[in-house]
Amino acid sequence: MTNSSLNILNGELNLTERDTKHIWHPYTQHKTTAKHIGIVRGKDALLWDEDGKEYIDAIASWWVNPFGHSNDFIAESIYKQLTTLEHVLFGGFTHEPAVQLSETLIEMLPDNQQKMFFSDNGSTTVEIAIKVALQYNYNQGKKRTKIIAFENAFHGDTFAAMAASGISFFTEAFRNSLIEVTRIPVPVKGEEEASFKALKELTQTGEYAAFIFEPLVQGAAGMVMYAPEALDELIKICKENEIFTIADEVMTGFGKTGKTFACNYLTQQPDMMCLSKALTGGTIPMAITTFTQELFDGFYDEDVNKALFHGHTFTANPTGCAAALASIDLLQQPEMQENLQRINQMHLEFKTKIEQHPRVTTVRVLGVILALELATDGNDSYYGSLRNKLYDFFIENGVILRPVGNIIYILPPYIISNEQLTKIYNTVEAAIENVK
C-alpha cells in the first residue's frame, strides 16, 4: 500500500488534495482542468507520483532537465557550494562561481559575446535584453522605441517579453499596456522571401531598436523550424541598418538542437543572447543575458543615469552558478555528446516510420527535438479538446508529453535510454491510432 493510500485511510489529504486548497498553477484554467498529480521522486528520465506510478519525462520538465532528475554530479556541486557560500548580494560584490561561470561561457559562446548579466528565468533574460536595446538608443539620443519579432513567437510572461510574444491568448488582456512590437513572417521553407521583404521594409523607418527571435526553432508555437541560412540573412539585414539582434536561446540552448547553441549553426552572430532553462540542469532558477562590448559601452559613462538600473535579489546566486558549471561540465563530456547523436538518430528513424501514417501531416526533427502534426477537422486549438485528450492518454500510459494543439513534440533528457525512447514512440503511435 502506498503512502498516499495510507493517508487517505487515516483521513489525511494526499498531495493533490492539499495542493487544490491553496495553489494557483501556471497556464491553468482551474475550473476545467483535472487535479494536479503529486510527484514525490525523480531519477534520471523517470518520475514517480504519490501512488507509486512511474512516468517517463519525455519533455525534460519543460526542457530544463537535460541530465535527468536528481543528478548526483550536479547535486554534489550544489552541496559543496552551499557549505562554502550559499548567497551574497551582487551589488558591490562578486564571487568565484560567477566569475568562473562567465569565463566558461565566454569560451563557448560566439566570439562577439563579451559581457553577461545574471537574472532569474527565461522571461527576465528577455526583459533585460529588450531594456538594453531600448536604453542603448535612449542613451545615444536616438528615438528607436519599437521591437521586431516573429509571428507566433513566445518569449516569456513579463511585460517586454509578453510584448515580443505573438501567441495572442497569452497576452490579449495586456494588449494596451505593452511596448510596440511589429511582427514579420517566420522564414519557414517557401516563406523566406516574404520574411526578408517584411524586415527590410521595417528597417527603413528608423524606429526599431532590436529584432528578437527564437533561433531555428519556435518552441511554444509547436517546434516550428526554419533554416540557419534564412536567419543569417535576417541578422545581416539588421546589422546593415543598426538594429540589434537578440537570440532567445532559453529553449534551444545547451544541446537541444544538436549543437551547444542554435546560433552555432549561423555564420552571422547576434548582438545579445538569452540563456536559462537547461543552464543549471533543471536544479536552481537562473538566467543570463549576454552582450557585445558595444552594447556594454553604451552604458559606460560618467553620467550615472546612463547605467542599467536593473537587478534581482538572487542575481548570480553562487549555488546556481555552481549548478550551471556542473551542468556545462556534463554537457561537454564525450558520452553526453554521443547521447545527443543517439537520440537524434532514433528520432530520425521514428520520423521515417511515423510520417507515413495517414493522420500525420508533417514531422520535424532537429537535434533531440521531434515534432509531428496531426491532421484535424478544426479541433486543434492550443488547449482544445484534441490536445486535452492526447495529454490525458499520455499521462494514463505513463508518459509526460504536453501537445501544443494538434502538435505532439518530444524533447527528452539526454540520458534517456533507448528502451524508454521506444516506449515514448510506441505511446505516440497508440495515441495517433486511438485518440480522435
TrEMBL record:
Its EC number is 2.6.1.62. Pathway: Cofactor biosynthesis; biotin biosynthesis; 7,8-diaminononanoate from 8-amino-7-oxononanoate (SAM route): step 1/1. Keywords: Aminotransferase, Biotin biosynthesis, Cytoplasm, Pyridoxal phosphate, S-adenosyl-L-methionine, Transferase. Its cofactor is pyridoxal 5'-phosphate. The modification N6-(pyridoxal phosphate)lysine is found at K277. The record marks Y27 as: Participates in the substrate recognition with KAPA and in a stacking interaction with the adenine ring of SAM. InterPro entries: Aminotrans_3, BioA, PyrdxlP-dep_Trfase, PyrdxlP-dep_Trfase_major, PyrdxlP-dep_Trfase_small. Catalyzes the transfer of the alpha-amino group from S-adenosyl-L-methionine (SAM) to 7-keto-8-aminopelargonic acid (KAPA) to form 7,8-diaminopelargonic acid (DAPA). It is the only aminotransferase known to utilize SAM as an amino donor. Belongs to the class-III pyridoxal-phosphate-dependent aminotransferase family. BioA subfamily. This is Adenosylmethionine-8-amino-7-oxononanoate aminotransferase. The lineage of its organism: Bacteria, Pseudomonadati, Bacteroidota, Flavobacteriia, Flavobacteriales. The gene is bioA.
